[in-house]
Amino acid sequence: MNLIPLSTEQAPPISIPLRFFGVAPLFLALAALVLAFDGGNPFDNLHNPALLGATHCITLGFISMAMLGAMQQLLPVVIGSTLPAPRLVAWSSQLLLVAGTLLLCFGFMLGKTGLFTFAWPLLGAAFTIFISASLFSIARAAVRNDSKTAMVLAILALGVAVILGMLLAHGYAGGRALNYPALAAAHISTALGGWVMLLVAGVSYQVVPMFQLTPAYPKWLTASLAPVMFATLALHLTALLFEATPHWFDLAAQNLFWLYAIVFSSTTLVLQYRRRRSIPDATLAFFRLGMGTLLCLAILSLALQGTSVPESLRILAGILFIVGFTMSLIFGMLYKIVPFLVWFHLFRSATKTDIPNMKIIIPEVWMWRHFWLHGCTLATALLSLLWPVTAWLFMLCLVMQSALFSRVLYRAIALYRQTLGKIEQEAS
After folding, report:
1. What are the phi and psi torsion angles at 307 (to 5°)?
2. Whether pTM exceeds 0.85
3. How far apart are CA 174 and CA 187, in angstroms?
4. Which run of H or E residues covers position 360?
5. How many whole angstroms separate alpha carbon 242 and alpha carbon 88?
6. How far is residue 23's CA from residue 115's CA, in Å, rounded to a whole number?
């Protein structure tokens, strides 16, 4: 597979992605507060209001916030096509996303489903703006490659997940008679298996070989993974919502999805083992933890296919996918993206001023501290399923992650502004 040449001249202003990255970790602390509000064990059942509120804090407030910020940076640079009115898209989508997420989370936490009446239009508008701008940008891009295909399918899956989520919130707010279990299962599948999984794959095709100095992914894998996974999700949704697919066919589709997840995660780990640089770094450790967790989850899911899965294992699967896989990879990518953005935008403006290198912008020691803290976060979340008292340690770890990443990020921003001020002084 040939890597896409980066179109750095298409890069948006640095304020656009950093705006999203700066807000995202705050929702981790909010998720901890929502869990603490329950006062008991939030992992006792899937329908615990505190667990639902905290889950949406993390998936919407942290994961989607970070992914929207990364996409507004990556689409112009990797695809070579700018988003229309990038500042307007960034401001409007972020403000609507923040407001909608807060209303939804507090609605769950307080048991005030009436708040959903205001939450779902705000969230719908936020994602509609982002999806429309992204698809417009992709449609006019001349580049045709497997990363682009994965991004398009991920955005389409996001659109379906948003529609299903809006339908669920609207139904809860009005007390309407809907098939809530089927809708919820479809919403989770498209949000996590579609939006998150396909976008991670599409970005990894470029990020892993480029930043981690590994061989390229096999062409057959990059060409088939996103279309096959998207097709399996479509079949699964048909079975859930319309019962139009035979049960055995739905199981076969789910098995194929998880088989591809095994191939993708194990291939990534093998490529990282074969990287040209032998010295490990923290971002690589985050990636390995994420891919290792995905591999374990996929094997577990295959082993349990066709059986009646207890609620505790469903919660376990959610922890592995959200905390172990998704959060690990997001932190790993952000610790590559943020220093590069600061360095690149300073380098583009510099005259005689010394530009700090990327290891100074975010010191490696802080990345390693965050990695071990994140490992503790995952461990305490898993232990909470056996010993409820450790749930409080999980909440504490979330707050500490929020504080640590915010400190690192705001330090990088301060360094950028300080250096930029020196550059502007020299120019004048």
Report:
1. -110, 165
2. yes
3. 19
4. helix 358-361
5. 39
6. 22
Q: Give 262-331 as a 3 state SS string.
A: HHHHHHHHHHHHCCCCCCCCHHHHHHHHHHHHHHHHHHHHHHHCCCCCCHHHHHHHHHHHHHHHHHHHHH
Tell me the pLDDT tens digit for each residue of 262-295.
Answer: 999 999 999 998 887 667 789 999 999 999 999 9
Task: Report how far apart the first and last C-alpha atoms of the chain are (Å, whole number).
Answer: 46
Residue 110, CA distances (Å) to 32, 46, 68, 69, 115 in order = 15, 17, 28, 29, 10
Q: Which residues, 6 or more positions from 387, have their beta carbon under 8 angstroms from its beta carbon?
A: none
**AA identity, residue 48:** N
| Structure-block tokens of residue 428 | 């004048």
pLDDT digits (tens, 9 = 90+) for 137-168: 888 877 778 888 999 999 999 999 999 999 99
Contact present, 195 and 154 (Cβ < 8 Å): yes
**What is the distance between the alpha carbons of residues 159 and 145, in angstroms, rounded to a whole number?**
22
Backbone Cα Rg of the chain:
21
For 370-417, how does the pLDDT look when each residue is reduced to its tens digit (9 = 90+)? 999 999 999 999 999 888 888 899 999 999 999 999 999 999 999 988
Closest alpha carbon to 130 in 167, 84, 161: 84
Task: List the Cα angle 191/7/356 in 5-degree steps.
Answer: 95
By CB atoms closer than 10 A (0-12, 13-18, 19+), residue 391 is buried
- Alpha carbons 33 and 30: distance in angstroms, whole number: 5
Cβ atoms of residues 194 and 153 within 8 Å: yes
**Residues 6+ away with beta carbon under 8 Å from 418:** none
Query: 8-427 has which fold?
Result: Cytochrome C Oxidase; Chain A (1.20.210)
Compute the residue count for the chain.
428
